[in-house]
Amino acid sequence: MADTPGDDRTLRGDATPLPDSHHVNVADAEAQFNELQRVLSIRSQQAASERTEQSSADHDLEKGEKREEGFDLRAYLTSSNEANDKAGIAHKHVGVTWENLQVDGIGGAGHKIYVKTFGQDVLGFWFTPIRILRSVLEIVVPAVRPQLPVTTILHPSSGLLKPGEMCLVLGCPGSGCTTFLKAIANQRKEYARITGDVRYAGIDAHEMDKYFKGEVVYNEEDDRHIATLTVAQTLNFALSLKTPGPKGRLPGMSRKEFDETVRDTLLWMLNISHTANTYVGDEFVRGVSGGERKRVSIGEMMATRAHVLCFDNSTRGLDASTALDFIKALRVMTDILGQTTFATLYQAGEGIYDLFDKVLVLDKGRQVYFGPPSEARAYFEGLGYKPLPRQSTPDYLTGCTDPNERQFAPGRSEADVPTTPEELEQAFLRSRFAGDMQSSLAKYKHTIEVDKSEQEMFRKAVMEDKKRGVSKRSPYTLGFTGQVKALVVRQFQMRLQDRFQLITSFGLSTVLAFVIGAAFYNLQLTSQGAFTRGSVIFAGLLTCALDTFGEMPVQMLGRPILHKQTGYALYRPAAVAIANTLSDIPFSALRILIYNVIIYFLSNLNRSAGGFFTFHLFIYMGFLTMQGFFRMFGNMCTNFDSAFRLATFFIPNMIQYAGYMIPVFQMKRWLFWIYYINPVSYAWVGCMENEFMRISFTCDGTAIVPRNPPGINKYPDGLGPNQVCTLFGATPGQDIVSGRNYIDLGYGLKVSDLWRRNFLVLLGFFFLFQLTQVLLIEYFPQYGGGSAVTIYAPEDAETKKLNAKLQDKKAARRGKSSKEIDEKAEEPEEDTTTRFYGKPFTWENVNYHVPVTGGVKRLLHDVFGYVKPGTMTALMGASGAGKTTCLDVLAQRKNIGVVSGTLLLDGKPLNLDFARNTAYAEQMDVHEGSATVREAMRFSAYLRQPVEVTKEEKDRYVEDMIEVLELQDLADALVFSLGVEARKRLTIGVELASRPSLLFLDEPTSGLDGQSAWNLVRFLRKLADHGQAILCTIHQPSSMLIQTFDKLLLLERGGETVYFGDIGPDCHILRDYFARHGAHCPPNVNPAEFMLDAIGAGLTPRIGDRDWKDHWLDSQEYQDVLAEIEKVKQGTSEHDGQPKKLTLYATPFWHQLRYVVQRNNLKLWRSPEYVFSRLFVHAFISLFVSLSFLQLGHGVRDLQYRVFGIFWATILPAIVMGQLEPMWILSRRIFIREASSRIYSPYVFAIGQLIGETPYSLLCAIVYWVLMVYPMGYGDGTAGVGGTFFQLLAIIFMELFGVSLGQFIGAISPSMQIAPLFNPFIIVVLSTFCGVTLPYPTMPSYWKWLYQLSPYTRIVSAMLSTELHGLTITCKPDEFIPFSPPSGQTCQQWANEFITGFGGYLANPNDTSDCRYCQYSVGDQFYTPLNIRYENRWRDVWILFAFAVFNFFATIVASRFLRYAKR
After folding, report:
1. At residue 161, what are phi and psi to the nearest 5 degrees?
2. Alpha helices in 558-639 (DSSP H)
3. For position 825, what pLDDT does the model report?
4. Residue of higher predicted confidence among 306 and 54
5. Which of 835, 829, 862, 838 is nearest to 848 (CA)?
6. Which residues contact 1252 (CB under 8 A, 6 or more apart)?
7. Which residues contact 1037 (CB under 8 A, 6 or more apart)?
8. N or C: which end of the chain has fewer CB within 10 A?
9. 3-state secondary structure at position 894
């Protein structure tokens, strides 16, 4: 075996003793443990004292505080273990064995999945009946079911891991490491088939999953947490559900004490005690740093106290020191507590590697090595691979499985060395390691079968952990009620801490109540107050019920966390459904009480305690029922668009069939059953019966026939003997109408049904929806995600040709050896497209201050440095030292805080074009998900390279970049389906496509395995050699990786410079500098990790008693840097000859618009769920409303229905807005990233969004119009067929108004959670004051300005006057109003003045008794009193268009000034 010095060892240079092939020496572990707990205390004290900003001068950093001194990790674990033994608490020791474990995934080899488009979805819709029939047939006759193609992800592998052992799983991306961990962790649902035998202490996988689910856990790579909980609350929650019962705790220790002890231990162990009261945060909520969030994930998993742990790349985002500290802590816990630990780690150093007992190497799902880590390197060298002494062992092992990276020993070649996964697997099976493993496995299985003590001890320990009363068969530690209680507490904390949401929901709800209450202010007990009472109850109920629509997306956003935590067996999924409802009640009850008080008393509904509380009870029950209804859809559907489709299937019916618009006895006989299954109808009927049973009306005004028109005094003022009251339930000759009779005859409602039917049915619906939620979430969970599948766009002629060319070049490369390729890479490219023209960049005295509560905090202090063309500079430091902050400041990406200092590019102050001439590859890979890799890079090239460069040249350059980034196989893959590594490469490619003069990268290797990180840095080196200037932050670099850079800028906490200068071959310049100040780096230690340890970045104390920043300020190197910066400034050209015109963007406005619109169109075409859902909803609502009002006649009631049919058009903006706002906000996230590079202007973004939506808006409007106008039988008035086309214009304008309003609300909203809160408020205000529910004559004078201002007024006026103008009205027999004239007069003589003044006609003018009066003779008589004029219809429709235009311009302005991107 070649002499292979380790990549990194312990701080003092002594190599960590290698474990033997089976187990780690306990004495060894305890020695490490002693060191760990010692340095941990010091490190925690440093962090805590630094955070408190050294408030007093006498505060000694090294002493820390008294509280920290008392923390002794080793003593805690050892004493707790001894105490447990004394108390007779059983240990859980679970050895894991797996034999012939094989995992198959869905999708055949070479099988490509193509993206669905809008066109395909529309066509597919017509085949839905056939698809349904086929699926029914497949259920009945399983033989006809097509067999899905499957691919083997993990080929048969075997092995064992005993309690107290750790196994490191290595492999290139795609080799099956994550699949192996998931299979071991019993997470089997997302795979097509898992075969083989996996046993845990002899218990099979099925039994383990059923009874001991929480004892085997998997820590995923992504950190998913509730952003608005603090770190301590997150851990407390996990602990509260996993606290052992009395038998599992020490005698006399309470649950609370146990939880606090374990929580504090975890916080100290993971060095995050200083973040205990900080929000966990996410992309939108500011919280702990990325590395700290990763440690919260680890802490949460450890809080479950499981004994088989699977960690998937859990050191991602941690710097090298913190990663090593974490693995050391894991090593000690595994030894002392007897856990069984599996981990995949990317970029693991030698120090980390040496801590494991076993290493498993996978190649394309095949087991190519399993055995002791100390012998793995020698094994692969023995196969014929070249020894690479400077490469760390984990990188060497994965490199041997990578066709692009592996190198053969001298005299060996592919011919005599196993290279394919199959050959490597066979070589391993023939090796002694496979034999040892098989014999150990057989021996261990035999021991477990004969001696069941370990298994019985495990079963006993699990039983003792359970709280009293929990079933023996339950996999949960806590009973169902306990789970619900813990979840209620968590939901409460979330709600209380999400202040913005609380204030917004309470604020908007109260304002809405005032609007509705004031619109129907002080209703009187007159005939006018009868209909409007029904209106205010309906408006109040509906606003409240439909407010719960926002529950659907919320249910979906919480799914990943639910999936993770139910995987940890913290709680049953059903507990979440119940806890959500219970925790919501205190907040919603108070909010709706305030809402109801305002509406009830402002509108003067019956003022009695019984009346109010019954009203409140029905409204609140309606709210809870509808909340359960929408949550049910949120749990049932896989994505928001399908839930949106389903919900809109029900909403129109719930509104239409509540009994308000159409009384139940007038509903179509084949549709009236909807009324009886509609929860809204029971709530509305209950409120109506409650109000009207308590009141009586006086018949007056417009309800009396005949009555005096203006200027006539012929008829009595009150109700005379020859006049009648037109109110439902009126008794001839009496002017008082009983409310009970009114609702009985007008709506068919019986007051006696209030409690015995309406309340009980509503309560039944509430429990039904709760039960449905529980069943859905428990037995049919929709977690989304699943296995990652790459989705492609179909090739066209051009891309087919380009892909063939790329594959040919790739094949040609493959034919050469790695050495030839490397030599070729060193040669300058002949093609000018890959030559870069970098410029020197210098920065001096850079300081950065940010506002914090109680003052200002400094994050960077007097940072100096420079980057020259052709060089690579690394920016390093501990977590929280300000690396990303420094990069943001230098790249001019900060928009909060104060930056001071001098930044010069090419010796000149930064100009207008700095942002677009430089490129910044950010850590968060934010891209337009529906574009392909090639399209994303082309978009960047078209808009960021100067317009003078031809399109062909830009295309050619992009193809070169695809090749250089090794993305040939993924050129047509859609961005949203890419893996972490490919997406990271794309981020760099998109930035390089601009051919920048300076390239910034933020942690480009984070989340990549060692091999990919090396490839990426080697690629960056190639760019630098071609003239590119590069500055990049980097995490966990290996000793080989750090040497690739020319210079290093090292920061310590507080943004202080520790070093800036050359690194040198074998890092000798850097090592000499540190050695001069007392920190000697041993030859076998990774210098990158050593210097972080030396300055006190990890858990280790810093070397020396003087701060390293002071060493730097006193050094000669510091003076040399200042001199070099002056030299760089002097050496730059004063001007570039021809002074070029400075522009903010590389391309003109129309050029930007063209490509932005093109991308938008493609995005919508590839988003069929979004576009087709919208079309489907338009078609469905229009069709269903039309079915209720099919082929309307010319009666008075039909006239009313024509009005309702038109009023439904006002629902269009509500549909569009709810769907469009999330889309807009997601697009804005991408725009914010692109705008920081000045790719295109905010005006182009806003215009492009509207243009993209317009074709689909037109299509939706036409479909809605066709299904509205013709089934209902519109166009019978004077306007005729031309009038129906005028209605189309009005609907198109309404659709555009909805789109522009939705985009405007999206533009002014900071997040997806906030935007929907505005919708109910806007819709209710616009529809209440448009003159339909509250007619213009009865509107209070102080609201009439809102009537004029509402766009809905315009569409209702224009469409109504067009439809009803000249429409002849003929009353049906039951629509005539009967009255008798005074004796001796004909009907005509008695009612003549009345008819002349108010319109209508008499069916029997010459009769002397039983006159039959019809209140309208022509449609115009209906709308004229409502302030509507036929002559104004064109004016009204263009005013509506003007509103849309205004929204559009407001959106552009909002896009320019409101970005909600604080950095």
Report:
1. -140, 120
2. 559-567, 573-602, 609-636
3. 41
4. 306
5. 862
6. 1157, 1160, 1161, 1163, 1164
7. 320, 874, 876, 1005, 1088
8. N
9. coil
Q: What is the DSSP letter of 118?
A: H
Which pairing describes strands 203-204 and 193-200: parallel, antiparallel, or unpaired?
Answer: antiparallel
d(CA 1345, CA 83): 78
To which residue do tokens 């380790």 refer?
6
Concatenate the DSSP letters of all residues of 1158-1176 into one string.
HHHHHHHHT-HHHHHHHHH
> What's the average model confidence in pLDDT over 848-868?
86
Coil, helix or strand at residue 1031: strand
Q: Which pair of tokens denotes residue 1318?
A: 């505005």
Phi then psi for residue 1164, to 5 deg, are -70, -35
DSSP state letters, 299-355: HHHHTTT-SEEEEESTTTT--HHHHHHHHHHHHHHHHHHT-EEEEE-SS--HHHHTT
Residue 174's CB is within 10 A of a number of other CB atoms, namely: 15
Strand (E) or helix (H) holding 114? strand 113-114
Residues 6+ apart with CB under 8 A from 166: 330, 331, 334, 341, 342, 343, 355, 356, 357, 358
- CA gap 1338, 455 in Å, rounded: 80
DSSP class of residue 213 equals G
pLDDT in tens, 187-218: 888 888 899 999 998 888 898 888 888 889 99
Instruction: Using pLDDT thresholds of 50, 70 and 90, give the confidence band for residue 442.
Output: very high
Three-state DSSP class for 177? helix
Decide if pLDDT at 27 tops 70: no
Residue that has been written with the tokens 């070589």 in this structure: 427
Cβ-based burial of 684 (10 A; exposed 0-12, middle 13-18, buried ≥19)? buried
Provide the pLDDT for residue 36.
45
Structure tokens at 1121: 């840097």
Block residue for tokens 């005074």: 1382
> Torsion over CA of 118, 119, 121 and 122, rounded to 10 degrees?
120
Residue 10 is predicted with a pLDDT of 31
Could you report how far apart the first and last alpha carbons of the chain are, in Å? 51
Predicted TM-score (pTM) of the model is 0.79
At 531, list the tokens: 């209909």
Q: Which residue intervals of 965-1000 are DSSP H helices?
A: 980-992
**Gap between the Cα atoms of 1368 and 937, Å rounded:** 64
The span from the CA of 106 to the CA of 786, in Å, is: 11
CB atoms within 10 A of CB 143: 5
Q: How far apart are CA 1048 and CA 873, in angstroms?
A: 6
- Cα separation, 1462 vs 283, whole angstroms: 11
Question: What mean pLDDT is predicted for residues 351-377?
Answer: 93
Alpha helices, DSSP H, located in 910-950 = 914-917, 933-944
Q: Which two tokens stand for residue 1412?
A: 């039959």
Written as one letter, the residue type at 1382 is P
Main-chain dihedrals φ then ψ at residue 1140, nearest 5 degrees = -90, 150
Buried b (16+ CB within 10 A) or exposed e, 873-889: bbbbbbbbbbbbbbbbb
User: For residue 96, what is the enclosing H or E element?
Assistant: strand 96-106
- Are 1050 and 873 spatial neighbours (Cβ–Cβ below 8 Å)? no
Closest CA to 39 of 1088, 1098, 1090, 1106: 1098
CA-based nearest residue to 306, from 185, 202, 217: 217
Which residue type is seen at 129?
P
pLDDT tier at 175 (50, 70, 90 boundaries)?
confident
The residue to which tokens 């196993």 are assigned: 418
Q: In terms of Cα–Cα distance, which of 352, 392, 374, 355 is closest to 6?
A: 392
933-944 helix and 951-964 helix, angle to the nearest 10 degrees: 130
Residue 164 φ/ψ region, left for φ over 0, alpha for ψ in the -120 to 50 degree band, beta for the rest: left
How far apart are the C-alpha atoms of 1117 and 1073, rounded to whole Å? 9
Q: Residue 910: which region, alpha, beta or left (left: phi > 0; alpha: psi -120 to 50)?
A: beta
What does the alpha-carbon distance between residue 998 and residue 1019 come to, in Å, rounded to a whole number? 16
